[in-house]
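Methods — Computational structure assignment.
A single polypeptide chain was analysed. Its primary sequence is given first, followed by the predicted tertiary structure written as structure tokens.
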Amino acid sequence: MTSSEGFSSNKAPLFDGTKYSFWKLRMKTYLSALGYEIWEATKNGYTTPSTPITDTVGNKAYENKSKAKNAIMCGLVDKELVRVMNCKTTK
């Protein structure tokens, strides 16, 4: 990303395999802006329960994990996505 390009709060920052430290900072900020729970799901990971989710808290935790994983995958070019596409968690 060149310095003349702008940034959007609606779109995840794109990682192309270069300048990881800049992307990491932007992605952390982006995920935090999506909500505290989204950043926590990314930072702490998510453990899939052994029994079906029936409560609101469990549903919300799963939803937050999914949102975090989606944001990260949308922020990767295809070459980088291939490296993480089989990961089960955002961790």
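Note: Helices lie at 20-34, 36-44, 56-74, 78-84.
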